[in-house]
Amino acid sequence: MTSSSHAKFDPSRAREYTEQARIGLAGYDACHELSACILSAALAGARERRILVVGAGGTAGEITATARLEPNWTFVAVDPSEPMLALAQAAVEEAGIGERVTFVRDAVSALPAEPAFDAALMIGVLHHIPGDADKARLLEDIAGRLLPGGSLVLAGNYRAYDSEPLLQAAWANRWRLHGASEGEVEAKLARIKAGAVPPASEEAVADLLAASGFTAPERFFSSLFWGAWHTRRAT
């Protein structure tokens, strides 16, 4: 993340993240579990793998699910937000896998610029990066740290929110189902739309990946504005 994007995740927002993320994304846990399953299937054939987790702060659901499935894999979890990273560290310790996860409070660009990872996971990050140039730069930073042919599982919102009024109305109903008042619903949608810039379409996601050194993505999960894809660093 850039400094402007990660600054949104201050201590107060970090505290509410765990609950609100599961309301905002119908299928939150399923997406994280499927991401682990996809990555395990894509990297089958070797017991030990080293995984980069980008924007790891929060529930650490992608780490804990993957670690359960692959007990010999290790993780480097990168996030510039200290409050969000603290949440992830607590979740990892609670899961009993702390010795397998190295936490780095910084950007991906701060890591050594060498292909040191078998795969990467980036869930719920790209739509918080403000522009296409910065999005591409982050993806390039990831590609440069993957081994040739290494996998990337990418997940996040895509499509402009106001371009899909039916999906936006259904999204608002998610909060109503969980007890939010009309004022709270309006405030949540306004904050999301003010603070995130998703890629314009699934084709835009594919274009960003191609320009950053990745192969054509394969989508394996979808929920309203959210999508999840598997791709590889081009060899």
From TrEMBL:
What protein name is recorded for this chain? tRNA (Cmo5U34)-methyltransferase
* PANTHER family according to UniProt: METHYLTRANSFERASE (PTHR43464), UBIQUINONE BIOSYNTHESIS O-METHYLTRANSFERASE, MITOCHONDRIAL (PTHR43464:SF19)
- The keyword Hydrolase belongs to this UniProt entry's keyword annotation: no
Residues of the Methyltransferase type domain? 56-152
Looking up Pfam families in the UniProt record yields:
Methyltransf_12
Q: Which SUPFAM superfamilies match?
A: S-adenosyl-L-methionine-dependent methyltransferases
| UniProt KW keywords | Methyltransferase, S-adenosyl-L-methionine, Transferase
Q: Known EC number(s)?
A: 2.1.1.-
Give the InterPro entries listed for this entry. Answer: Methyltransf_12, SAM-dependent_MTases_sf
Tell me, what is an example of a GO biological process annotation in this record?
A: methylation
**Signal sequence bounds:** none
Check the record and name the Gene3D superfamilies matching this protein: Vaccinia Virus protein VP39
State the Gene Ontology terms under molecular function.
methyltransferase activity
